[in-house]
Design brief:
The complex is a heterodimer of chains A (429) and B (312).
Chain A lengths: L1 H13 L6 H12 L10 E5 L4 H16 L5 E5 L2 H13 L6 E4 L3 H7 L14 H4 L3 H6 L10 E5 L2 E6 H7 L7 H13 L3 E4 L11 H11 L2 H8 L8 H13 L12 H9 L3 E7 L14 E4 L11 E3 L2 E6 L6 H11 L2 H10 L5 E2 L10 H11 L3 E3 L2 H4 L5 H13 L4 H16 L2
Parallel strand pairs in A: 1-2, 1-3, 6-7, 9-12
Antiparallel strand pairs in A: 3-10, 4-10, 4-11, 5-7, 5-8
Chain B lengths: L1 H4 L2 H7 L6 H6 L3 H28 L2 E2 L7 E2 L3 H7 L2 H32 L6 H13 L2 H12 L4 H8 L16 H26 L3 H9 L4 H12 L1 H17 L2 H6 L11 H11 L3 H31 L1
Classes of the chains: A alpha/beta (429), B mainly alpha (312).
Chain lengths: 429, 312
C-alpha cells in the first residue's frame, strides 16, 4: 500500500511536467486571461524566504512596488525544502510562476543550459543595474553570454566568536593556520571546546564550509570550482591535502559538532561552551538581538601565502522563467528589486546582517557589517558555497562524506573513493 | 452474481411469494453506479496511472528537467553494486524484525496486562494509546530533543551515575538506527495493544473456566486458549506491521534523514533522497518499484498461506 503512496509521490513531483501540469496551467491561464490576455495580471513571485522576518520584509518590498503603479506583483511564499524540490517542476510546467528567489552561478547555469530561464540581458543595461560590479555581472551571466539573474543581497562566511569571551580567555584573532592551531590549544586548556560546528540535525551541509575554505586556501578558488564542476576527482591528491590539514584541527572540534544543528551550535557559542564557529551571517537570526553587538569574526586563516585569498560570499537574488507570459512586467519587477530603495526596504525588515548588491544601497551600518563588507571587497576571488558552486544534487554526497570523515578520519581513503563514485553518478545525469 | 447464474426454478422456490430475484439484481440504480465509477476514475487518475508511470520511470534516467532517457534495466543492475542500497535493504529488514516483532510482543503484553477491568485501568490504556494520536513528525521532534547531547536521556544517565553511557545517540552510526526505532515503537505499541484488547474481549470466558476446572496453569491457558483464539487478530496485526514497517519514513526523515552516512537509511528514505535530493528520479523510481514488490510479496505470500490454512 505504502509503495503506491511512494510512487505517487515520485509521480507528483516528476510527472507534473508530463500530465498534471494541464491542471495548473488551466488555473494560471484563467487568472491571466482577464486583463491584457496572456501578458496581463500580477507577476507571481515564488519565494523560499519563509522565516517570519524575511517573509514580511519581502511583502513590504512587493507592497512598495505595487504602490508605484504600472505592473503589479504578488508574493507566494513556499517552505524552503518544498521550494527546492519543486523548482524543476515549476520551471518545466507549461504555465509557470514568473519569478523565483534563488542563486546565481552554477545552480542558475544548470537551468539556463536547458533554456528554462528568461534572458534578462537588456535590463542589465538599465540605470538600476548599470553600477553593479563586474564580479556580479560575471556571476549572473550564463555560459552562452546571456544574463539570467538579478542579484539583490549577499552575505559572508567567517570564523565568528564573542568579543567578551576572547577578552576573558586572553586570546586574540589569529591570521595564519599555525596561529589558529595555537589559539585552539589555548582554548582547550581552558576547558572550552575550541571549534563549534553545527552539522547535526537537519543542517549537515554546514560541514561543507570547512571543506570549501580549506580547499580555497590550499588549492585556490579556481581549482575548487573546477573540482565541484567535475573537472577534477575527489580522490585526487590535492583533495587529500585538504583532509590532512583538517585532521590537524579535528581534535579541537566540539565532540557534539555532528549532533547539533547550527542553531543549537550558535547557542553553545553564545554561552561560551565553544570558542568559535565557521558560519555565515544568517546564524545571527538565531541569536538574541542584545548579544549581536558582542559578536565579531575573523577571516579563515591563511594556510599557503602563495594562494590568493578568496572568501565565501553567497549571493541571493532572482531569476525568471523563460515561459512566463508576462515578460515585460516580470522585467519591470526585477528592475525594481535591483534598486537601492527595494534593497533597503528588505534589509530594514529582515535581520539586517546581509549586504545589498546595489552600490548606493545602505546596509545596516553596524561595525560587524562594515567589517564583513571590507572582507568581501578586499577578497581576490569570491566563491558561493558548495551547493551553489556545484549543484543541489551534489550537496548530499558532500554531507555524507564529510560527516563520515568527522567521525572516522582514518577512513579518509575509502571516504574519498566513495565520494567520487557518488559524485560521478550525479555528474553523469 | 450467484443469484443470476442459479437455475431459475430453484430461485423461484427460494423466493416464493416475492418478485423474481433476477429482475431486482439486474437493476443497478445509476447512483450506485456513480458511487463505484467516480471513485474508480479518481483512483485510476491519481493512483493507478501514476503507479504505472512510476514503473515506466524506473527504466529511465531522468533528472526531473530534461526528457527521461530509456535505459532498460540499468537502474536495477546498478542496485546490485550499490552499497547504500544494501545497507538500506538490511536496515529495512532489521526494522521489520525489531519494530515489527517488538511492537507485536509489547502490544500483546500491554493488552494482557490491561485487559482486566480494574480501577484506573482506563487511564493506563489511554496513556498507552496517547502517542498514536500525535503525528509521527511531532513525535520525532520531541524525541530529537530528548536525544540531544545535553537532552533528557543523557542528563538522566548522568544523574544516576551512568555518565559512561551518555552518547550522541542520533549522530553515531552504531546507535542511530536503534535510536530511531524507539519513537516509532513508542507510538505503535498503543495501536497494536488496542487491536489485541479487542481480540481478547472476543474470547469466550467459558473456555478459561473449563481450563481452570481441568487444572491448567496460567501459562497453559495462554498457550492453548489465548494464542489460538487470537489468530484472526494476528493476521490483522501482521498486515499492519508489515505495511507500517515498509512505509516508515517520516520518523526517520525527521530524526536523521537516513544518516549519519546512511547508517539509519531505510529503502523509503533512500528512495526519497535519491529522487528528490540527488534528482535521480529514474533510480528513485526503481527503488520505489523494489519497495512495492517487497510489500506486495510479503503480504501476498501471507494471504496465500492464510487461505490455505482456512481451507485445510
Amino acid at each position: 500500500m505504502n509503495t503506491t503512496a511512494q510512487s505517487r509521490r515520485t509521480f507528483l513531483a516528476g510527472a507534473a511536467a508530463v500530465g498534471a501540469t494541464a491542471l495548473t496551467s488551466g488555473c494560471v491561464a484563467s487568472s491571466s486571461s482577464g486583463g491584457k490576455g496572456s501578458s496581463g495580471g500580477a507577476v507571481t513571485l515564488q519565494s523560499n524566504l519563509s522565516s517570519p522576518q524575511a517573509k514580511s520584509a519581502m511583502q513590504e518590498v512587493i507592497d512598495a512596488f505595487n504602490k508605484r503603479g504600472g505592473a503589479r506583483g504578488s508574493l507566494n511564499t513556499v517552505a524552503s525544502e518544498t521550494f527546492r524540490t519543486q523548482l524543476p517542476t515549476y520551471l518545466t510546467s507549461a504555465n509557470p510562476p514568473d519569478l523565483y528567489t534563488w542563486y546565481p552561478g552554477s545552480v542558475a547555469e544548470s537551468y539556463a543550459k536547458k533554456n528554462l530561464l528568461l534572458d534578462v540581458s537588456d535590463i542589465w543595461e538599465k540605470p538600476e543595474l548599470a553600477g553593479y560590479s563586474d564580479a556580479l555581472k560575471k556571476l549572473c551571466t550564463d555560459s552562452a553570454g546571456k544574463k539570467v539573474f538579478v542579484p539583490t543581497t549577499y552575505y559572508w562566511w567567517g570564523v565568528f566568536y564573542r568579543k567578551s569571551n576572547f577578552a576573558k580567555w586572553g586570546v586574540k584573532e589569529p591570521s595564519t593556520w599555525d596561529e589558529f592551531l595555537d589559539l585552539c590549544d589555548k582554548l582547550k586548556s581552558k576547558g572550552v571546546a575550541p571549534i563549534g560546528l553545527g552539522a547535526g540535525g537537519n543542517t549537515p551541509w554546514v560541514a561543507s564550509s570547512w571543506f570549501d575554505y580549506l580547499n580555497i586556501r590550499i588549492n585556490g578558488a579556481a581549482y575548487h570550482r573546477d573540482l565541484l564542476a567535475g573537472k577534477h576527482r575527489f580522490d585526487d591528491p590535492e583533495v587529500r591535502k585538504v583532509f590532512d590539514r583538517w585532521s590537524e584541527a579535528l581534535p579541537y572540534f566540539d565532540p557534539n559538532g555532528t549532533a547539533l544543528p547550527f542553531q543549537d551550535a550558535t547557542t553553545a557559542l553564545l554561552q561560551g561552551r565553544t570558542g568559535m564557529m565557521l558560519i555565515g551571517t544568517f546564524f545571527a537570526d538565531a541569536a538574541p538581538k542584545d548579544q549581536l553587538g558582542d559578536i565579531d569574526f575573523f577571516r579563515f586563516p591563511v594556510i599557503d601565502p602563495k594562494v590568493p585569498l578568496a572568501e565565501e560570499a553567497p549571493t541571493d537574488g532572482y531569476f525568471a522563467s523563460a515561459r512566463t507570459g508576462r515578460k515585460d512586467e516580470t522585467k519591470e519587477l526585477l528592475r525594481y528589486l535591483a534598486t537601492a530603495e527595494a534593497q533597503e526596504i528588505y534589509l530594514k525588515g529582515s535581520s539586517g546582517t546581509s549586504l545589498p548588491t546595489h552600490p548606493d544601497a545602505k546596509d545596516s551600518g553596524t561595525p560587524l557589517v562594515i567589517k564583513g563588507r571590507k572582507l568581501i571587497e578586499s577578497a581576490a576571488d569570491v566563491t558561493q558555497f558548495f551547493n551553489r558552486d556545484s549543484s543541489d544534487a551534489l550537496a548530499p554526497t558532500a554531507d555524507t562524506a564529510l560527516t563520515r570523515f568527522l567521525a572516522k578520519p582514518k577512513e579518509i581513503g575509502s571516504i574519498l573513493t566513495t565520494w567520487q563514485r557518488d559524485a560521478q553518478k550525479i555528474w553523469s545525469q | 452474481m450467484a443469484v443470476l447464474t442459479a437455475p431459475r426454478k430453484e430461485t423461484r422456490e427460494h423466493t416464493a411469494g416475492r418478485p423474481p430475484a433476477r429482475k431486482r439484481a439486474t437493476r443497478v440504480p445509476p447512483v450506485v453506479l456513480a458511487f463505484v465509477l467516480v471513485p474508480l476514475l479518481a483512483e485510476a487518475f491519481w493512483v493507478f496511472w501514476p503507479a504505472l508511470q512510476g514503473f515506466y520511470l524506473s527504466f529511465t534516467k531522468w533528472d526531473g528537467v530534461s526528457a527521461p532517457e530509456f535505459v532498460g534495466l540499468a537502474n536495477f543492475r546498478e542496485m546490485f553494486g550499490d552499497a547504500v542500497f544494501r545497507t538500506a535493504a538490511l536496515d529495512t529488514v532489521i526494522w521489520l524484525l525489531l519494530f515489527g516483532g517488538l511492537s507485536a510482543a509489547l502490544g500483546l503484553g500491554a493488552a494482557l496486562l490491561l485487559q482486566q477491568e480494574r480501577r484506573g485501568v482506563g487511564f493506563y490504556r489511554a496513556a498507552l494509546f496517547l502517542p498514536v494520536v500525535f503525528s509521527l513528525v511531532a513525535t520525532a521532534l520531541v524525541w530529537q530533543a530528548m536525544y540531544q547531547p545535553d537532552g533528557l536521556i543523557n542528563k538522566t544517565l548522568e544523574a544516576v551515575g551512568l555518565s559512561g553511557l551518555t552518547h550522541a545517540w542520533l549522530a553515531d552510526q552504531d546507535t542511530a538506527l536503534y535510536a530511531v526505532i524507539v519513537p516509532a515503537l513508542w507510538r505503535q505499541i498503543g495501536y497494536v495493544m488496542v487491536l489485541y484488547l479487542a481480540g481478547l474481549k472476543g474470547i469466550d470466558p467459558v473456555l478459561y473456566e473449563a481450563a481452570k476446572m481441568d487444572g491448567a496453569t496460567r501459562l497453559q491457558q495462554f498457550r492453548h486458549i489465548t494464542l489460538p483464539q487470537l489468530s484472526s487478530v494476528n493476521a490483522v496485526v501482521l498486515s499492519v506491521i508489515v505495511i507500517d514497517s515498509l512505509r516508515s519514513f517520516d520518523v526517520v526523515w525527521a530524526l536523521t534523514r537516513g544518516g549519519p552516512y546512511h547508517s539509519s537509511e531505510l529503502l523509503s528514505t533512500y528512495m526519497y533522497s535519491t529522487a528528490f535530493q540527488s534528482l535521480r528520479l529514474g533510480y528513485g523510481s526503481a527503488l520505489a518499484v523494489v519497495i512495492f514488490v517487497l510489500a506486495f510479496g510479503v503480504i501476498a505470500s501471507y494471504l496465500v498461506r492464510a487461505f490455505r490454512e482456512a481451507d485445510a
